[in-house]
């Protein structure tokens, strides 16, 4: 969790209820749990660091709780 907190630029209490670390009463905890599943899925499907980049929280977050990336307004759908 120390690595994840550094990749997001936050401390434990940003996502966790420090009185009960397993509690999911914070929205950030629930979102983080889903994003961790996404990161694991990416690793299982080739982004494991062997032949390409390794999927991590830092890939999108760059040390910030909320990623800066925004889809361009003129982006075309597939």
From TrEMBL:
Top-rank taxon:
Bacteria
Q: Which GO terms describe its cellular component?
A: plasma membrane light-harvesting complex
Task: State the species of origin.
Answer: Bdellovibrio bacteriovorus (strain ATCC 15356 / DSM 50701 / NCIMB 9529 / HD100)
The alphabetized list of GO BP terms reads: photosynthesis, light reaction
Can you provide one Gene Ontology molecular function annotated for this UniProt record?
iron ion binding
Functionally, this protein is described as follows: The reaction center of purple bacteria contains a tightly bound cytochrome molecule which re-reduces the photo oxidized primary electron donor.
Note whether DNA-binding occurs among the keywords. no
| Residues spanning the signal sequence | none
Per the record, a Pfam family?
CytoC_RC
Q: What is this protein called?
A: Photosynthetic reaction center cytochrome c subunit
Q: Which UniProt keywords apply?
A: Electron transport, Heme, Iron, Metal-binding, Photosynthesis, Transport
């Amino acid at each position: 969790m120390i690595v994840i907190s550094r990749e997001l630029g936050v401390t434990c209490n940003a996502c966790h209820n420090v009185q009960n670390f397993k509690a999911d009463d914070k929205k950030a905890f629930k979102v983080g749990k889903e994003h961790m599943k996404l990161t694991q899925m990416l690793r299982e499907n080739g982004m494991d660091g062997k032949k390409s980049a390794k999927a991590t929280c830092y890939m999108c977050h760059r040390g910030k709780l909320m990623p800066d990336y925004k889809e361009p307004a003129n982006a075309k759908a597939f």
